[in-house]
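Newbie here. two chains, one complex. Structure please?
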Amino acid sequence: MHSIILTGAVCAFGWMADAIELPWLTALPFVFLLFRTEVRPLLLSHQLVITAMVVIAIGTAVGTFSQNSAIYSSMWFAASIGVLALNNLMCIVVRLNKDRFFWSALVHTSVLLVMVGGLTKAHLKQEGMVNLLEGQVGTAMMVTKMGQPTGNQLETPFPIRLDEFTVEFYEEAEQVYIYDLDASMDKPAKMIDATAKSSATVGGKTVTVVGRKKQKFAPAPNHPPIEVDGLELDVSGTKVTLPVNGSGVRDGQLGFMFHQARGAPKLYKSKVSVLDEEGKVLETQEVVVNDPLIRDGWYVYQSSWGETKNGLYSGLQFVRDPGLPYAFIGMTIMMIGLCVQLVIPRRRASK
Amino acid sequence: MTMIYNLMVLAYFLSAAAFSIGMFLVWRKKLGLGKVMHLMGNILIAAVMATGIGMMTYSWVMTGEPPFQTLYQSLIFFAVTTAGVHLVASRKIPIMGWASAGFILLILAYAYLKQDGELAQRIPPALQSAWFVPHVVVYFLGYAALFVAVVASILALFYPDPKQLAEGNPLGVAMRDFNLFTYKGICFGFAMISAGLLLGAFWAKFAWGDWWSWDPKENWALITWLIYAAYMHLRFLPGMSNRLLAWFSIIGFVAVMFTYLGVNYLPAAQDALHSYQQN
């Protein structure tokens, strides 16, 4: 009960600090708790850690269901994470000098490190976007927060030139769009490959692609039919031929449309050069998704791409996260610590 | 490929039937025949696991891409890991065969529903990463271990004393405490889902620029992790009832299933970073 009251009180304090727009006030109860020796047993208790975890889990679930990401940056949510951090800190201090609790203390330290990394990221992370055409040099970026533009601009940490940008696509995709006309005329219920034996079930009917077939097709009401390529479909035993020129066909509640599209992007890569202030090339690197350029604490990502009348542009994202070393060290220790503590000791104990 | 899938389903049906007949025979005091049927059930599950691994290896070799990209493929892999963990766990709780075969059948039935819109595999750029395979493999090993743990938890609710089960069913149990078994399963599963969550965070940093984005899938992975972390601490509370621990394990597994399958249906997940998993 004391744990619930304490967590509730700290979260309520955070909520009030948010309401009066003085978020730093959230730290006050933590300072108070650290110096009150009589509450230390409570701060160390398992009840408190469980309460804090349940509150964080509920807050995260509410944020997901309500699609309200403001919850994650609210002070009451931060306060519940603070309670967990405080409990962790107390556990580490108590267990430091006890050999048999070494791995437990290590895991708790790692959790604390990840929290420090997250807190640092939340307050000090910088990010921005630059869209460049081939040959252009980027010196200013649109500042973003959690991927969304804030409307501000900043100088890039270093000038960057896009030397070359290529996008590779998968092969052209030929698909059959199947519409359940009772449900939606605009959005296909299912999409299947236009290859023999592809099938889907829509509105209780099974649609299977049989294969290509020539068919007569009248492009206009008074136009004589012409022979065009078609695709034969089996709709729960009934044969339907679909012209491959993009015209739709209806069979009861189901509608069909042949769709030919450029394949999905397979890979997009930017060859970029980092320049000094005089335009001299300092470094050249290929940036692809999963392989950013790392320089002076900044990560430059291949984030997006698009087309303009002047050609393809490459979207590069600049990110600097001072909390990253803490988070990465914490995560590495946590993985090792949990595996040693939870998987290996079972054997040792049984011996 | 569809034929191999059908064979897998058929073999799982046969294993479920073998376990059911085995249980019936044991109940009718025909212990020897019951054990034979039970062994057949396990052999069928092992054969199907091997077929699943073969099917995935074939797909990997033919396409050059890891066979975990679509929901259908991940469900097949989940069935394989569940079968593998079942074979280890059933040495301790033979009765688990019936639950495992039933659960795997559910997974395969759902996979069947999801295979119809099977499009040619086009792996998006973000998934072309060395982090992809370890992230998925440890997660599904964890999920399988947590499934085994939840079966033990349910048994613990019905049979607080495992001897009761052993008396009614000589195939029964080779262990003294379902709660201890649940704990062991959760220890392994929790270590695996933690590793999966952290490997995912490393990967996200290199792919999306941020190791944590409050994406619905990430959020539910965190909620699942918190529930199991709370379970690990709950055990230390003095006088903690085994029933509450069992219920926590059940809630944890519901969260696992929601993270894996349910999140995809949330409106918030439609444009989320993990949305490619919904195909």
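Moderator note: The first helix of chain B runs from residue 2 to 27. Chain B touches chain A through 51 residues (CB under 8 Å). Thread marked as resolved.
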